[in-house]
C-alpha cells in the first residue's frame, strides 16, 4: 500500500485491534460513522483508502461518513478472518434457483411470471395477495421481499398504516447505486476473476457524491470489475471474455440520459486507465443503469430512489438496534431481505434475514394455531 516505514507498526496495531475486536466492543460503535471512527485512529492515508475504497465502498454502497461503524467493523472481521465471497458455477442466479428447488422439494410451489400487484389487508391483518392478472391468493401470512418502502407505499398502501409510520418509511435512506458496462471481448484482458481499481483519491464522501451529482466535481472514484469466466470457464466462449464493471452513482432510476452517460464515462475512463489494451478488444458492450436495476428488483416509490444496489443503506441510525423491524404494524405481514432482519454484506445480509424471518414466521404461525 506504500505506507511509510515509520507508520507501519501503528498501522498494523490498528489493523489487529479492528480485526480482533470483541462483539460487545464492536456494538459500542453502533450509530457512529465508519469515517469518524477510523479517522480518530489516525491511520495512514493508503490504509484508509484500502479499507474504504477497496472494501467498504463496494461492500455497502455508501460513503464512509454515512456507513455505520459497527456494521463495517463486523463485516471486515468476517472478510479478514473467515475469507469472503463465492461464485456459483452456472452464474449467481443459481442461489435463487436453489431456493426455488427447495421450496418445491418441501411441498410448496413457485409461480414464475406472476407479479404481485397488491397485498390485501382487512381489519389490520393481511388476507393474501393479488397478482397482476387479477388472481387472488389467500393467506394469513405474507412475506415481502420487494423492499420495505415499495411494500408499504405501493403494495399495501399508505392508508393501512399510521401517519407516523408512513413518515418513518419515507425517511429511510437507501444505499447508493452502481452502473457500468458488460464488455464482450475478443480475447482475454486479465486472468483475475475480480478486481478493484482505487487510489488515495478514490474514497467517496456524502458531500463529494452530492457535488458530483450536481456536475460540480469529478465523478471518478472506485471501480469494480468481474470476469465470470475466470471463475467458471463455461461462462464465455473459448478464448473470449466478458468483463463487467460497476462504479458509484445516485440511486435515481429516472436519471437523464446525459447524467447516466457522465457517470458511465467516468467509470470507463478509470477502467481504460487500468487496462489500456481493453478498448482494442471490445466486440460490443452493454450499459446497465439504475433503471435496469429498478426494473429488475425494486419499484420506485420515493423520488430519487429505486435503483439502489443493496436496498436501505446501512447508515448510522439504520443498523443494529435501529434496524427496521421484520414485522410490519399489520398482523401477518413480514419484511425479508436487505432492508430488515440481517447484517453483513449484500446477499449475505439477505440470506441471514431469510433465516431469521423464517424462524419468526414459524413462531407466528404456531401461536396462531
Feature tags:
369 residues; alpha+beta; 38% helix
What does this structure look like?
With 369 residues, the chain is an alpha+beta fold. 38% of the residues lie in helices and 15% in strands. The chain is built from twelve helices and ten strands. It has helices spanning 8-19, 23-27, 34-39, 45-60, 69-82, 94-105, 148-156, 163-171, 206-213, 257-274, 290-297, 346-368, and strands spanning 116-122, 125-131, 136-138, 142-144, 177-185, 194-197, 223-226, 241-249, 282-288, 333-335. It has a five-stranded antiparallel beta sheet with strand order 6-7-8-5-9, sandwiched between helices. Strands 1-2-3 form a three-stranded antiparallel beta sheet, covered by helices on one side. Strands 4-10 form a two-stranded parallel ribbon. It is globular, with a radius of gyration of 22 Å. The termini are far apart.
Short synopsis of the structure:
With 369 residues, the chain is α+β, with helices and mostly antiparallel strands. It is 38% helix and 15% strand.
Tally of contiguous helical segments: 12
Strand content: 15-25%
Rg over C-alpha atoms, rounded to the nearest angstrom: 22 Å
Beginning-to-end CA distance, first to last residue: 59 Å
On the 0 to 100 scale, the average pLDDT is 93
Number of extended strands: 10
Shape: globular
> Structural class, judged by helices and strands?
alpha+beta
Unreliable residue runs = none
Q: Secondary-structure element order, as H and E?
A: HHHHHHEEEEHHEEHEEHEHEH
Largest β-sheet summary: 5 strands, antiparallel
As a percent range, the share of helical residues equals 25-40%
Strand order of the largest sheet: 6-7-8-5-9
Amino acid at each position: 500500500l506504500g505506507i511509510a516505514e515509520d507508520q507501519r507498526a501503528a498501522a498494523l496495531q490498528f489493523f489487529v485491534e479492528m480485526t480482533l475486536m470483541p462483539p460487545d466492543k464492536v456494538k459500542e460503535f453502533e450509530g457512529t460513522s465508519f469515517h469518524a471512527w477510523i479517522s480518530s485512529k489516525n491511520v495512514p492515508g493508503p490504509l484508509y483508502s484500502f479499507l474504504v475504497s477497496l472494501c467498504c465502498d463496494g461492500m455497502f454502497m455508501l460513503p464512509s461518513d454515512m456507513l455505520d461503524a459497527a456494521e463495517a467493523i463486523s463485516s471486515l472481521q468476517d472478510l479478514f478472518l473467515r475469507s469472503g465471497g463465492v461464485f456459483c458455477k452456472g452464474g449467481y442466479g443459481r442461489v435463487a434457483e436453489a431456493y426455488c428447488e427447495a421450496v418445491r422439494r418441501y411441498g410448496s410451489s413457485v409461480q414464475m411470471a406472476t407479479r404481485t400487484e397488491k397485498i390485501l389487508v382487512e381489519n389490520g391483518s393481511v388476507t393474501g395477495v393479488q397478482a397482476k392478472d387479477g388472481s387472488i391468493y389467500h393467506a394469513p401470512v405474507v412475506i415481502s421481499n420487494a423492499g420495505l418502502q415499495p411494500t408499504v407505499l405501493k403494495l399495501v398502501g399508505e392508508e393501512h398504516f399510521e401517519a407516523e409510520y408512513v413518515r418513518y418509511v419515507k425517511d429511510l435512506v437507501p444505499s447508493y447505486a452502481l452502473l457500468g458496462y458488460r464488455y464482450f471481448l475478443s480475447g482475454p484482458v486479465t486472468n483475475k476473476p475480480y478486481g478493484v481499481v482505487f487510489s488515495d483519491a478514490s474514497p467517496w464522501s456524502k458531500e463529494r457524491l452530492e457535488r458530483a451529482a450536481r456536475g460540480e466535481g469529478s465523478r471518478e472514484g472506485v471501480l469494480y470489475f468481474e470476469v465470470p469466466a475466470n471463475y467458471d470457464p463455461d461462462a464465455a466462449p473459448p478464448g473470449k471474455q466478458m468483463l463487467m464493471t460497476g462504479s458509484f452513482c445516485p440511486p435515481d432510476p429516472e436519471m437523464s440520459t446525459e447524467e447516466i452517460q457522465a457517470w458511465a464515462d467516468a467509470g470507463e475512463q478509470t477502467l481504460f486507465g487500468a487496462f489500456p489494451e481493453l478498448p482494442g478488444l471490445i466486440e460490443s458492450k452493454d450499459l446497465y443503469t439504475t433503471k435496469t436495476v429498478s426494473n429488475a428488483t425494486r419499484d420506485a416509490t420515493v423520488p430519487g430512489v429505486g435503483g439502489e444496489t443493496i436496498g436501505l443503506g446501512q447508515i448510522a441510525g439504520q443498523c443494529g438496534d435501529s434496524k427496521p423491524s421484520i414485522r410490519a404494524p399489520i398482523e401477518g405481514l413480514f419484511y425479508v431481505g436487505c432492508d430488515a432482519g440481517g447484517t453483513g454484506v449484500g446477499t449475505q445480509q439477505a440470506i441471514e434475514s431469510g433465516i431469521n424471518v423464517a424462524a419468526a414466521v414459524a413462531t407466528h404461525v404456531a401461536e396462531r394455531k
